[in-house]
Amino acid sequence: MGFFDDKQDWLRGVFAQYPDTPQGRRAALMPMLRRVQQDEGWISPERQEEIAQILGTTATEVAGVMSFYSYYQALPTGKYHLQVCATLSCAIGGADELWDELVQELGILRGDVTPDGLFSIQKVECLGSCHTAPVVQVNDEPYVECVTKARLHALLRGLREGKRLEEIVLPGKVGHEVHVRGEEVGV
Ligand code: FES
Asked: Which of 18, 19, 164, 182 could be stapled to 97 by a disulfide with Cβ–Cβ 3.0 to 4.6 Å?
């Protein structure tokens, strides 16, 4: 069964927002990708093909659009998809060490999901919050900022306990710390 088979009303509503032309129809690509991503946590090759057929385009074009946005996942993700910014400010602040810590703690690499289905990890480009580097984002929640190893472990512990992000208390202050290799070293 296709993902959109039982979502025809939703699909009609999306198409109604765009001109009734082949180009207008293809404008529905983004909302369709977003819907699959939200419901299934990733957009499999089968879903990419299904979207392409509905829109009268190719799976290659769908994959091309997806590759431009880190939000769209072409690999399975866990309940909590941890995105570690690896660009310059975060790299200087210890993003590589945080990544190694995650790999060791969770026992997974990019593209894996922990056996309990909870976690997947990904390095991403600048999240636009360089002044609070290093930065980690869980799913599409607000950023976790000034991440140290201690804050990272507190984050994982809280998520494992089923807490919402805003309920998790992270050690240390936010906003003015100096970090080196994932450790807080001064203000
Ligand atoms: S370099 Fe990480 S948020 Fe900009």
From this structure: 182
